[in-house]
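G., before I forget:
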Amino acid sequence: MKVKDRWRYLLVCIHVGGAGVTREALCSAIINGLHSLYGDWGLSRSKLLFFDYNPKKSLLVLRCAHKSILMVRAAIAMVYNIEGGKALLHVKKITGTLKKARKILEENN
Amino acid sequence: MRRKWVEFHVRSKLSDGLDAPEELIKMAAHLGYRFLVLADFKEDEGLRELAALKEYGKRHGIDVASRANITVNSVKELKEGLRRIRRKVEVVGVASEAKEVVRAAARDGRVDVVSMLGLLKSPLDKGIVELMRRGRSALELNLSALISETENRRKILEKWMEYSTLAINRRVPIILASGAGSTYQMRSPRELIALALTIGMNVDVAVNGVSTLPLQIIRLNREKLKPEFVAPGITVIKKGGST
């Protein structure tokens, strides 16, 4: 019997020096961080999926497997450079549903 | 009661950092910290600005504490530095590449933390860790080396694991700090904990390393800096008259 996956939705707050970053650059920075710490095993285990990115509010919603939250947080801590500019990423909120994550994203000013 | 997170080591423009201390205070508040330890106070000039920074921190919900980082290469300079600064700042940290300096710092009760700033060049072995245990100083692991040096990341992680295992085995307290020289090097407490857990620390050690332990050091040293302090547990409550 296949056990149903449990997901967590992370609202990641982004601070970048200079101009903003693109969604692609942001996603690849997080993936690279995860890969440099845990390799392919970590990437596959975390089952990362990127959802909404709001450059104005500097917030990104991503999904990961419930078991790999620590790994993803550690990877997020490792992101220091995005497209040559300095960056600081941190998890603002963790939710259990995408609906709730999107609601927080909309509410946040 | 909510846990109070402590950012135990950041450097601002007042010393060799890149950003103004006000920027660091604002970022610390944004990341969820309640205490920020500014490691900028080697001389008296910086200390003059401390009162204004504490006031600024209070407005942002941050308790600002002062720290001096002693980075010297001889034991004589270390002793002189400790004599000059110990009664003026709330936290004293020592970071050195010279083994005899780290050994003397570990033995000296006036040193709060032995910092592993330049992680690859820091000398630390079983003997020094044992001295730290007896001298009741803590080991500080800084994240800045790990995030900013991408080429040596593997070696730095190895050192993190080696040093943390040494400290845990000898029951030396570990403090986790960003060691940031700019706002972009700061990390939130939960991210620091996540990183510590990935290198094999257990949850209690990691969580206490960002909250309880640094808080204890700050509170104890604040007590010591009060004029009525005599010794731990002994304070002057009233001075006797001449008649």
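The first helix of chain A runs from residue 23 to 46. Chain A has a mean pLDDT of 91.

More on Monday.
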